[in-house]
Amino acid sequence: MLRIQRKANGKVIFTLSGRIEAEDIDELRRLFELEDISRKIALDLRDVTLVDRDGVKFLAVCEVNGIQLENCPAYIREWIGRESRPTTRRKQ
Hints:
- By secondary structure, this protein is of the alpha/beta class.
- It has helices at residues 22-33, 53-64, 74-84, and strands at residues 2-9, 11-20, 41-51, 68-70.
């Protein structure tokens, strides 16, 4: 279960708590679309306990699109890095 809290003070910060799973992504996208395009958006991930692969891919895309990931746990940061790297196949 994912809990989302919104606060705004210059930029909009969504504080996420719990698990980020595939079924949460559409709701997060909807919330982003409701925001004024001129406002910066950040995700505070301090209280995130678990992220599935779809969630990691979503966070990577968020970052590419200018959404700041604050208090990102090290394991999520590392996983985002791995997902963002192009894959290459070894020749056999």
